[in-house]
Amino acid sequence: MMLNQRKLGNQGLEVSELGLGCMGMSQSYGTPNDSESIATIHRALDLGVDFFDTAEVYGPFTNEKLLGLALKGKRHQAIVATKFGFKIVDGKIEGVDSHPKHIQKVVEESLKRLGLEHVDLLYQHRVDPEVPIEEVVGCMGQLVKQGKVRFLGLSEAGEENIRRAHRTHPISALQSEYSLWERNLEKRIIPLLRELHIGLVPFSPLGRGFLTGDVKPAEEYPEDDYRRRDPRFQGENFEANKHIASVIQEMAKSKQATASQVAIAWLLHLGNDIVPIPGTKRRTFLEENLNAAKLVLSQDEMKVLSDTFSPGVTSGVRYGEQQMRLIDR
Hints:
Blueprint (H helix, E strand, L loop, with lengths): L4 E4 L4 E4 L3 E2 L12 H13 L4 E3 L8 H9 L8 E6 L1 E4 L2 E5 L3 H15 L4 E6 L8 H13 L3 E7 L3 H10 L4 E5 L11 H8 L2 E5 L31 H20 L4 H10 L14 H8 L8 H10 L12 H4 L5
Parallel strand pairs: 3-4, 4-5, 5-8, 8-9, 9-10, 10-11
Antiparallel strand pairs: 1-2, 6-7
Helix pairs in contact: 1-2, 4-5, 5-6, 7-8
């Protein structure tokens, strides 16, 4: 299949209209399977995906190594995005750290793990309240001048920091959670991104799998599965969310599509400055997700989905208290 290209920002970054989120290949959603994950990355390349998303903290560190291994000999086909911003000690996260010296050190380490001379898109993973965003982005801009990074991004940043960052060095993309399931960006963030010509890269476009319809209550997932601790998978939240998610399944049946394809297609229809990165470690799900690019939703269907999943309708907060504190809103 052929995927269209979309522009992220106005600095020259063009990527396939759907990317591949690689986090779940190394953590959060069940047991890793490196051989199938690498086969999934290769299949993505074959099907026209050129945008791959990872981060130092995924694993930690193992996901960058996995992506680097998969792209060996295929670098010319890929746009690679990674992220920095956490303090990682003995494999555990101990807060955030975006001091310039730390940035320079960890970006060098990411390049080694990825086996690359440069990263195409470098994100600050979470805003560090201890370091002015001008210092952070100034350091990232130096990495661009040094040829180690091509384009800059932020993740889960708020309005003020987006504006200040963009004044310091052009920002090409904001990565944040956004989907039918989670629409907190619509009131203030998306209008700002369009004002500044910054692209949006939504992660978790399927609501951590909830929008696929193939979900279980939190307590039925293994201890090492993120969803076991997700508030939206727990108790009454689970039942309420399952009820509203059924609307996607009904629409999917009427269109001879899957719920995943409908949820991703809704995002794709919102504008050419939006590039979702659904994550999977299996070729079958990859192919299913990519076929969303061929699905056409009418204005009426878009309205039904938007109205059903109106902002705030999802039951439960999207993260636990500690993770919510890292969101710059």
